[in-house]
Amino acid sequence: MAAPLRFVAISGSLRAASTNTALLRHLTSIGAEHGAQVEIADISGFPVFSQDIEADGLPADVTALAESIRGADGVIFATPEYNYSIAAPLKNAIDWISRARNDDGVQPFSGKPVAIVGSGGGMRTMRAQNHLRQVGVFLNFKAFNGEFGVNYFAEKIFDDEGNIVDEATQKRLAEHLAGFVDFVKA
C-alpha cells in the first residue's frame, strides 16, 4: 500500500469558530479514506509582513511552515471572502512563505499543487478563490481547478461545534478531496 499524500492546509480565518477552518478539520477526518494526510497549519503567530522584519531574518514559524510546505505533496487553502477578495491573514501568510527561498532561490509554492475551498456568503468565496488563483500565477503553483465553496448563510451546513452536518456538503467536499488527490497523482 502506498504512503498517503501529505497536504498542508491553511485557513485564511483566525476566528475560533471559523467555518473555513471547519472545512479543513473535516478534510483531516476523511483524508485517510482518500489516500491523504491533511495537516492544518497555524498562521496566527505570523507578524504583518514587513521587509524591515525580514531584514532580521524570517520568523521561525514562517520558516517552519515554509519547510513543511516544501516537503508536502500539496497545499489546501481555505479562504473566507472579505470585500470580494482574499482574507488578510491568508495573504499575509502567503507573502511571508513566498520569501522563504531555498539555496536555488525557489520559494515553497513553486510547482506545488494547490486546492482551494471556502465558506462565505452568497458567492461562496468564488471571488476570493479567483484572486487566490491570480496570486498563484505569480507564485507558480499548480492550481486544481475544481471549485468548492459553501454559502453558510443559506442553509444549515455546520452545527454549533463547527462540524459539517449537511450530507450533500460532506459528499461534495469528499469529491473535491478525491479530485485533488487524483490531480496530484497525475
Automatic annotation (TrEMBL):
Gene Ontology CC: one annotated term: cytosol
Location of the NADPH-dependent FMN reductase-like domain: 6-153
GO molecular function: FMN binding; oxidoreductase activity
Superkingdom field: Eukaryota
SUPFAM superfamilies in the record: Flavoproteins
Pfam families per the UniProt record, alphabetical: FMN_red
Protein name from the UniProt record: NADPH-dependent FMN reductase
